[in-house]
Amino acid sequence: MRKIYLLTTEHLECGLWFRDEEDFIVAMNYIAIQAACSPEAVILAFILMSNHIHIVLRGSREEVIDFVNQFKRRYSQYYRQKYGTREFLRGNGLDVQAVPLEDEAPERVIAYVQMNCVSANICAHPSQYPWGSGNCFFNPDRPAGKRMGDLSVRARRQLLRSANPRVPEDWLVSEKGYILPSSYVDVPAVESCFRTPKRMNFFLNNSSKARKRIEKAEAAFRDQSILVCVPDLCRSLFQKGSFRELQGDEKVEFARQIRFRFSADATQIARVCGITYAEAAALLDRV
Fold first, then answer.
1. Domain with 56 in it: what CATH number?
2. Confidence (pLDDT) at 217
3. Which of 50, 145, 194, 255 is the most buried (most CB within 10 A)?
């Protein structure tokens, strides 16, 4: 039976799905490729966060799970080639929740997904976040792009990192080099669900993620912003090239510096340093 599902990958405790902009771009294109390869699973909304993803799909339970698993398989291969990390997402769990059609549940779920970036203090509105579908809905000025059909076969292969890329020729490619979500997200269905921009904004502003943003008074840095600074900080403080080269007291001081400079908590320190939450918390306990 075809239903609406919210699928969420397990949050990585001691690492990041996406370390830099290239990782996000590759993942955006892999989402698009999977949308082309699995038209029976229809994307209603999605967002790529530093250490997990959310995606709202319409289809059978088997179809939507296969969609995410195939995406993870593609991205894991890319990640392994770039970073040399094996079995990166093999043990990464997937939470699958059926979304009832009554009681405005689809609206609340889509708003929840869209507001993840706002809750993380990355931007003020989902439309400002490029790594998802936040800019798709009720937007008369959607970003323009080049048609896939206007690209050479070689350019398509380079863009999609595939020897046999099969995506519709009328799909649009952004200036950053990823297929625009408005090309494959079922925008009309979502806009019909919310009916008006005002009603959509109501659900965005009253989502649990919006309340979390209000509760977090301190400014936050993105994981990627901290990650870029880690090598330089290791060199300037300890004359070493990475966190893994640090010894006991050096790691304690490094954790203190990250917390002081970036207002990072143990969870974020664990992600950017590639350690477990327990290890990060233990370092902070010694500060």
1. 3.30.70.1290
2. 45
3. 255
